[in-house]
C-alpha cells in the first residue's frame, strides 16, 4: 500500500510531519507514549480500505520538530488542528496521551465530528501519583536512559503488576536488553526506544496539567467512542468511568483480555485487527 509523507507548520512554526494512506473520509490516528506515527501502521492498513488515514508524528519524534521548553497541551492541540486543517479530516482516534490531546481539541474544534479515545490517562482524585517524575527527570538529565525508563514504567504502571515485585537491577537489565534488541531491529524511519525515552516527560505532564479538570469535557458535542482494555492499569479505567458519565454523546467498549498496548502493531503485542473492527463500526455509522 502506498504511503505518502507530508508536512505542515503548527501555529508556533514547529514542523509536524504525517504519513497518509488509503482512501475515503479522513481519519487521524494520534499515537501515545513511547510511540511514533509508525506504531499504528498495521491498524492504519486495516482502516485504509474505508478511510484516508493520517498518522502524524507528535513533537519530538520522527518527522516532526522538537518540543519547546514552555510546552503545554495547547501546543499539542495546535499541532493536531494544523493537520486537521491541512487534510480536511473530521475523525480522530487518540491513544493514551494522544487521547488527552483529542479530548482537549474536541472542546473547541468544530472540525472534529467523531472521536475515538483509547485509555486516556486522565488523573481523577489522585488515581496515579506523579512523585516519580523528579527521579525520572534527573535520570534523563544524567543520561541514564535505562534507569529513567524503569522509573517511568513503575511510576506510570506501564508493566504488568508482577514488575512491582521484581528487583530494580533485574528490570534495568531487561530494559537494556530490550533497547539493544530494538536498535538492532530498527528499519527505515523507525523511532527507537532510546530516542523516545525523553518524550515521556511531556506525555506525563499532559496528565498532570489536566488533573481533576474533567468537568470541562461536558461541553464536548462530538460523538465519542471510549475504548479500554481489561488488563490496563486501574487509573485508565477510572478515567473511562468518569468520561462515560460526563460526555454527552459517548459509548464505552472494553477489550477483554487485552492490555494498554492493544492498538499498536503486533510486534509490540497489539491486536490491530480487533481494534479496527470497533473503529470501523463507529466511524462508518452515518457516513
TrEMBL record:
Alphabetical list of SUPFAM superfamilies matching this protein: alpha/beta-Hydrolases
Q: Name one Pfam family in it.
A: Abhydrolase_1
Where's the AB hydrolase-1 domain?
A: 27-260
Q: What is this protein called?
A: AB hydrolase-1 domain-containing protein
Amino acid at each position: 500500500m502506498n504511503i505518502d509523507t507530508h508536512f505542515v507548520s503548527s501555529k508556533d512554526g514547529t514542523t509536524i510531519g504525517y504519513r497518509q494512506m488509503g482512501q475515503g473520509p479522513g481519519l487521524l490516528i494520534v499515537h501515545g507514549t513511547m510511540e511514533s506515527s509508525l506504531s499504528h501502521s498495521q491498524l492504519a492498513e486495516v482502516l485504509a480500505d474505508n478511510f484516508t488515514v493520517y498518522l502524524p508524528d507528535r513533537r519530538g519524534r520522527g518527522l516532526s520538530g522538537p518540543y519547546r521548553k514552555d510546552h503545554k497541551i495547547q501546543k499539542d492541540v495546535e499541532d493536531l488542528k494544523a493537520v486537521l486543517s491541512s487534510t480536511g479530516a473530521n475523525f480522530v482516534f487518540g491513544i493514551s496521551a494522544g487521547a488527552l490531546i483529542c479530548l482537549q481539541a474536541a472542546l473547541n474544534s468544530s472540525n472534529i465530528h467523531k472521536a475515538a479515545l483509547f485509555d486516556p490517562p486522565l488523573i481523577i482524585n489522585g488515581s496515579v501519583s506523579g512523585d516519580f517524575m523528579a527521579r525520572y527527570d534527573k535520570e534523563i538529565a544524567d543520561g541514564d536512559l535505562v534507569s529513567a525508563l524503569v522509573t517511568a514504567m513503575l511510576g506510570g504502571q506501564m508493566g504488568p503488576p508482577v514488575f512491582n515485585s521484581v528487583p530494580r537491577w533485574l528490570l534495568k537489565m531487561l530494559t537494556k536488553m530490550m533497547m539493544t534488541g530494538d536498535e538492532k531491529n530498527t528499519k527505515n524511519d523507525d523511532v527507537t526506544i532510546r530516542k523516545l525515552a525523553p518524550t515521556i516527560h511531556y506525555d506525563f505532564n499532559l496528565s498532570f496539567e489536566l488533573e481533576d479538570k474533567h468537568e470541562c469535557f461536558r461541553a464536548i458535542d462530538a460523538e465519542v467512542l471510549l475504548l479500554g482494555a481489561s488488563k490496563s492499569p486501574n487509573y485508565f479505567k477510572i478515567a473511562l468511568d468518569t468520561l462515560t458519565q460526563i460526555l454527552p454523546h459517548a459509548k464505552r467498549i472494553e477489550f477483554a483480555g487485552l492490555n494498554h498496548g492493544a492498538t499498536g502493531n503486533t510486534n509490540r503485542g497489539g491486536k490491530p485487527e480487533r481494534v479496527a473492527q470497533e473503529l470501523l463500526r463507529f466511524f462508518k455509522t452515518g457516513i
